[in-house]
From TrEMBL:
SUPFAM superfamilies xref list: Stabilizer of iron transporter SufD
Family: Belongs to the iron-sulfur cluster assembly SufBD family.
Example GO biological process: iron-sulfur cluster assembly
InterPro entries on file: Fe-S_cluster_assembly_SufBD (IPR055346), SUF_FeS_clus_asmbl_SufBD_core (IPR000825), SUF_FeS_clus_asmbl_SufBD_sf (IPR037284), SUF_FeS_clus_asmbl_SufD (IPR011542), SufBD_N (IPR045595)
Organism: Deinococcus cavernae
Pfam families for the chain: SUFBD_core, SufBD_N
Stated name of the protein: Fe-S cluster assembly protein SufD
Segments forming domain SUF system FeS cluster assembly SufBD N-terminal: 11-185
Residues covered by the SUF system FeS cluster assembly SufBD core domain: 192-422
Amino acid sequence: MTKFTEQLSQSGGPAWLTAKRQESLDLFTSLEVPQESVEAWKYTRIDVDFDQLRPHGKREAVTDTARLPTSVQKRLGSTDVGAFLVLDGPDVVYRTELPAELRDQGVIFTDLKTAVEQHADKVQQYLYSVVPAEVPDDTTIAAPGTTPSKSPDPSEGKFSALAAALWTNGAFVYVPRGVEVELPLGSFRVMSEAGTYTATRTLVVCEENAQVTFIDEQDSEELPGTYAIGAVELVVKTGARLRYVSIQNWGKGVTHIQRQRGDVEKDATLNSLVVTMGGTLSRTEMQSYLRGQGADSEMLALYFASEDQHFDHYTLQHHAAAHAHSDLLYKGVNSDESVGVFSGMIKVDLNAQKTDAYQKHRTLMLSSEARNFSVPQLEINANDVRCSHGSTTGPVNQEALFFLRSRGIKKELAEKMLVTAFLEDVLSRLPLQSVVKYIEGIIAEKVGAA
């Protein structure tokens, strides 16, 4: 791992960050790649030769959007955001500034590398507080700024440790107490060099009674042997409201590994949506830690796996306080010879009485060659709760398909209509019409009806 040490030495930054990077790299070096013997990775194996990994090359900033990738140009012309960043590999290649009125209220939106330099106090307080390298999926995390407990299963942290050590950039959002940001903020991440890896990190902090929406999109052309590794930390303070949307549409050949965790305090709300459409292999961990009474977490996701794609989603709804609510709805589509995996846990701590938690996973199978594994789970340590979970998997309704085709609708369009209808109850919960339209366009391409 000498080359990783060299990369770390070139990262720069303050002493506290260098020390944390080194600690994470040491942990990464000591761990094994998760195997099928680890329950959380039972259906997914990632074959990677770390010695052959090389970082994505540097990219220069541009001043004209016409020089951005075509996919980014198209999205910027069809989405409503108040400000955005465009990252190509490790570098910010384009950005727009926040409106002056938001800057005057203390809102910060910049890339994480710049934030470390210009807002060191805030970044140091929260960075690594929600997604440290070593925290397992089923262990209580510490309050932001304190040290979490160690993982009892060290293989869980291999990729998180790498992301913590070698992240090159990402997005940083800070919304002060009582400030409401009306238009969404956005980050568009692309990669343009095959056979490389990029490690990114997103940190969003909503102080007391603040409100913001953040859209995190990832897109690329076909890139064989490429890895996108990342972490997303969402800090939602008392009474705050945060909506986080992640749309992963990497090109074929990309392996996507990301851990997302939200820390939700008293009477705060976290609405999250994870959309998985691209890449050859994708492993997404989506977790909410309900720390305070009255905390609320809505965890939505949809995915469409086709050809030989393998999509793995691992979720955790962790209730640590009484009178908290969480609602998880995952909907997926599998076609061709694709594989879908869902493993979800509702965990209720001893003192988390009056917990109200729901978990539902539904899969639509468009091919008899496709496979889907669903493992919903409950771990209840309180005796006055309302928790439920369920999972269903089935084919397209043939009567509905026949009805549409009998009206002269081609099979591809009929399937697109049925798939869109199947996913509609997830999309209907997202009050961002430009994003919904974009997702529906990807779905149409997947079923050949674009």
